[in-house]
Sequence to fold (214 residues):
Amino acid sequence: MKISHENPGEQASAMDNYYKFQSKIYDMTRWTFLFGRDEIIKAIPLERNAKIKILEVGCGTGYNTKLLAQTFPNAEIRAYEVAEDMVKLSRKKLSSFGNRVEIVHQPYGTELETQNGHFDACLFSYSLTMINPQWEDLIKQAHKDLKTGGYIAVVDFHDSKRPWFKKHMGNNHVRMDSHLVPLLKNLFSPVVEKVHSVYMGTWQYMMFVGKKTD
Ligand SMILES: C[S@@+](CC[C@H](N)C(=O)[O-])C[C@H]1O[C@@H](n2cnc3c(N)ncnc32)[C@H](O)[C@@H]1O
Fold:
């Protein structure tokens, strides 16, 4: 199924539909293939007890959001999520953190200039490869929303040499074309840059942590 995502509303409603069922099996299944999620949070080079502001884009069921809140106990976290069923699950998972964690039910990037320069760190975990074709705009928006000296942290699918696998992932809204790293390196100064191959080379995933220097 090919979906044309001409605008954020269309992309958001594709996600909303996709996760109506997937949300029910998400936490049971994703540990088998969304690799590097714990590691990317540990790789954010900020002081653990600092009073910082963290942005997360595409928080899903809140798996990473919870880890962020535990790893940075004094951080305020704002997490964006478009799929209604995922929002419900993440709000439930994060309720014990109170006002410190806010789950915003809207596509990231629609608030324009209101939060420019606001955040110390921004996490995209397996969201950018599903945000098509707006992924480029969202990386640029994150660059604006970070303070100078802040960090972007990205873990995501990278590429696959197996056409059947790429097609399968495409049918699940995931683009795997090694397309994220060049723009990330262009906008941010790399601190961590890794590509790992998994399941006998079926696919590769990438991890990138970069500092905003301008
Ligand atoms: C593969 S899931 C990853 C969830 C979580 N970050 C994780 O690592 O488990 C991608 C999530 O991004 C969300 N998403 C997609 N496009 C988005 C957008 N434009 N703004 C905010 N969230 C979005 C999807 O609804 C989905 O929950």
User: Anything to note?
Assistant: The two ends are 41 Å apart (CA to CA). The helical segments are 8-29, 37-42, 63-71, 84-94, 135-145, 163-171, 180-187. The beta strands are 53-57, 76-80, 101-104, 119-125, 146-159, 189-198, 203-211. The pocket of S-adenosylmethionine is lined by residues 11-12, 15, 19, 30, 34, 37, 57-60, 63-64, 80-83, 86, 107-108, 125-127, 130-131 (CB under 6 Å).
